[in-house]
Amino acid sequence: MAVQVFPTEEAVADGLAKYTSDLSKKFSDRRGAFTVVLSGGYLIHSIRKLLEPPFVDEVDWEKWHVFWVDERVVPKTHSDSNYKLAYDGFLSKVPIPPNHIYAINDSLSAEGAADDYEDCLKQLVKSGVLEVSAATGFPRFDLMLLGMGPDGHLASLFPKHHLLSEKERWVTFIKDSPKPPPVRITFTFL
Questions:
Q1: Where is the Glucosamine/galactosamine-6-phosphate isomerase domain (predicted)?
Q2: Is-contact 68 103, C-beta < 8 A?
């Protein structure tokens, strides 16, 4: 894919909606599913155009499977929760089946939630919703919508943090995030 430069944030939102809608159609038609990974921050605002015509009517929301690249270990109703941000700003406004929304379990410890989320991904590989990349051994998603923090972090993988060298686990936890809150769950691959 070529790099695209947009003159305004509004143009970014328009372009992202079209790109996402087109990918959704492509993978829904090809595989019967569209797997999307969300992050926190400003991203949910950037996909707002999917909630408007023509996109909201063109997308086959029943085929969407939604995941999080990371989550803060807080209740889903907490203002720091990436799930809450996505639910309030996007997911509550589209008819994605609730069993296709794979939120991180907020009733478990950080370690337990990471193990549980990795187990969930492995079950979805077994059921055919997700595929594993032959090159990396990690799950492959149709679209990963990621933001980058001002310090260069992606998900909850921070520059110079020891988690950057994790090669075995698909999902792990961090208890010393340099950005609050300090306890988080994160994919180890991007």
A1: 8-189
A2: yes
Cα–Cα distances in angstroms (integers) from residue 113 to residues 26, 62, 64, 65, 70, in the given order: 32, 26, 23, 19, 11
Q: What residue type is 36 in one-letter code?
A: V
Which among 122, 105, 126 is positioned nearest to 173, based on CA atoms? Answer: 105
Distance from C-alpha of 132 to C-alpha of 166, rounded to nearest angstrom: 17
The neighbouring-strand residues paired with 67 are 37
Query: For 28-73, how does the pLDDT look when each residue is reduced to its tens digit (9 = 90+)?
Result: 999 999 999 999 888 899 999 999 999 999 999 999 999 999 999 9
Q: Can you list the positions of beta strands (E) in the chain?
A: 34-38, 64-68, 70-72, 131-132, 139-140, 143-144, 171-174, 184-187
Phi and psi torsions of 70, nearest 5° = -160, 165
Please state which architecture CATH assigns to domain 9-148: 3-Layer(aba) Sandwich (3.40)
What is the residue whose two structure tokens read 């988080």? Answer: 184
Strands 131-132 and 70-72: unpaired
- pTM for the whole structure: 0.94
Position 1 scores a pLDDT of: 65
